[in-house]
């Protein structure tokens, strides 16, 4: 799929998710990312440490069947998985209906100007999309490791390490992503408080309306979480590219740098 943008790996300023949280709430803007190695080590218990030590010492002995287009295969798999998840988001925010669609919470028919609608439907909505991400990206990551395992000794070793890191950090990642609905609820309440004093329910989904603004933030947070969850796969793809240079499509790097959000911005609307 040449020309389709890949998500970017995190830079010095942190992931897209961390930046977005800081923009929406200043309490998250100054969080330190220092002492990374020490803080990472605290996340591993004794059994995880033993597994990591074993993976570090592991020396894969093959058989290996180097495939020159491995980076391109991994890239295409990543793009296909990402496109599927983005399509799920687009169908939700575009108001489509169907058994496979996670429906955006409907506008309350009994809305009152002075009464904030319940937030609970948005919790269910967000968590449903999280479950889709977890399933899709876990399977993608497993497929990537399987291909690395048969490529060469270095990539097979990396695949072994990645499996241990995925297992060891699973509970930490689960707990971290689980707080995002709580963050959204705080934003929901804050935007409600900031609404115009004479806003009627009919104004809530008009441009500038508090509920329309909230749905835009909801969409951005889901997209940023998707990027964050795909970071490990991007790392595996980058390692494969170093081992087999010159095999990705010529425009992939330029596309990644210059158009990371084109697909997301065009495909997911915030209208009800």
Describe this structure in words.
With about 270 residues, the protein is an all-alpha fold. The protein is about 60% helix and about 0% strand. The longest helix has about 35 residues, at about 210-245. The protein starts with 15 loop residues before the first helix and ends in a 5-residue tail after the last helix. The relative contact order is 0.20. Residues about 250-270 have low confidence and may be disordered.
Q: What percentage of the residues does DSSP assign to strands (E)?
A: under 5%
Give the SSE order as H and E letters. Answer: HHHHHHHHHHH
Number of strands: 0
The average pLDDT is 82
Radius of gyration, in Å, reads 21 Å
Which bin fits the share of residues in helices? 55-70%
Q: Poorly predicted ranges (pLDDT <50, ≥5 residues)?
A: 249-272
Distance between the termini: 31 Å
Characterize this entry briefly:
By secondary structure, the protein is mainly alpha-helical. 61% of the residues lie in helices and 0% in strands. The protein has eleven helices and no strands.
Q: What are the SSEs and their pairings?
A:
Blueprint: H1 16-24, H2 36-41, H3 46-57, H4 70-93, H5 120-149, H6 153-168, H7 170-178, H8 180-193, H9 210-243, H10 252-258, H11 262-267
Helix pairs in contact: 1-9, 3-6, 4-5, 4-9, 5-6, 5-9, 6-9, 8-9
What keywords describe this structure?
mainly alpha; 272 residues; elongated; 11 helices
């Amino acid at each position: 799929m040449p020309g389709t943008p890949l998500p970017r790996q995190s830079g010095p300023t942190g992931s897209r998710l961390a930046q977005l949280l800081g923009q929406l709430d200043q309490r998250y803007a100054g969080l330190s990312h220092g002492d990374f190695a020490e803080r990472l080590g605290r996340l591993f218990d004794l059994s995880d440490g033993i597994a990591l030590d074993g993976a570090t010492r592991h020396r894969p002995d093959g058989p290996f069947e180097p495939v020159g287009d491995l980076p391109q295969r991994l890239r295409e798999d990543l793009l296909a998985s990402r496109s599927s998840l983005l399509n799920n988001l687009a169908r939700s925010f575009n108001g489509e209906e169907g058994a496979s669609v996670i429906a955006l919470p409907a506008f309350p028919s009994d809305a009152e100007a002075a009464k904030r609608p319940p937030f609970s439907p948005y919790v269910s909505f967000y968590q449903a999309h999280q479950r889709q991400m977890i399933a899709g990206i876990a399977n993608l990551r497993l497929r990537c490791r399987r291909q690395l395992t048969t490529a060469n000794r270095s990539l097979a070793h990396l695949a072994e390490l990645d499996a241990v890191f995925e297992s060891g950090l699973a509970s930490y990642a689960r707990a971290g992503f689980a707080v995002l609905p709580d963050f959204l609820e705080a934003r929901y309440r804050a935007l409600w408080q900031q609404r115009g004093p004479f806003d009627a329910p009919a104004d809530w989904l008009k441009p500038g309306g508090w509920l329309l603004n909230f749905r835009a933030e909801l969409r951005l947070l889901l997209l940023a979480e998707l990027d964050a969850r795909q970071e490990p796969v991007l790392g595996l793809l980058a390692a494969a590219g170093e081992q087999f240079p010159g095999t990705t499509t010529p425009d992939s790097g330029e596309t990644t740098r210059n158009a990371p959000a084109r697909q997301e911005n065009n495909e997911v609307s915030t209208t009800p």
